[in-house]
Predict the 3D structure of the following.
Amino acid sequence: MAEPADYPPFQLGKPRFEQTSFYGRFRHFLDIIDPRTLFVTESRLKEAVQLLEDYKHGTLPPGVTNKEAIIHPDTNETIFMPFRMSGYIPFGTPIVVGLLLPNQTLASTVFWQWLNQSHNACVNYANRNASKPSPTSKFIQGYLGAVISAVSIAVGLNVLIQRANKFTPATRLLIQRFVPFPAVASANICNVVLMRHTELEEGIDVLDNNGNIVGSSRVAAKHALLETALTRVVLPMPILVLPPIIMSVLEKTWLLRARPRMLLPVQSLVCLAAFGLALPLAISLFPQMSEIETSQLEPEIAMATTSKTVVYNKGL
């Protein structure tokens, strides 16, 4: 696969775009979530892996510059298609459409919130940092916490809206469309805290300018969890807020009033567009390897390095 003219030279183990700017991270994640990689065959994937091995040993065939693989960087195993980052939008959009369906019953609310958190949990697990073993109990704990919080908030808000006498039926229906956002955002935060709370107690590795580990910092862990939690709040915002606003306008047009069967396809397209915009924007907010001043860390870590700043992996 030849590189476009505006692509920087390929360096093994490093993103092709500069990660210190939002634009560079945005371009990088556009590559990561490209749904075209879902159609890469197993034989093609094996060829790409072999090319990476050839590159490492300096035996890359002439004229070949780079290949993309769909494997986990730590386990070297192929990630199941629905749980790849490139599959997050195409496989997640039907769930978003289900979350935003009007006139939801209690059963449908519970089902779509459960399905959404199940999908999120599987994506998180499939793309986890697997360089260190992590007990399955952490995954189960985070998954159950996210499902319980999402379902509880969604059902609770729906019940409150239904019992509110001040709202007209039309206003009540409009407000109900925005219920999924606080439920999903709260569940996402709950998921991060429950699955990674041990990082706050044990700390995470911080590296100096030469890539050497200088210690395990609880301060850096707090920063990492805060950045991840903010990303998880921003991500569902355009996905679950913009479509209800857009659909409330489109539903008043003569086209959809005359053809009510087009409501679902149009809503699906709106959700797909919002999802495609929100995902790369949200995950580009912070660098994967974030920087922090050494003076802000624990004294023993500050004394262990001469670097003014260190970096840490904030996680997914």
Summary: The radius of gyration is 22 Å. The beta strands are 204-207, 213-217, 289-293, 309-313. The longest strand covers residues 213-217. The chain is about 55% helix and 5% strand.
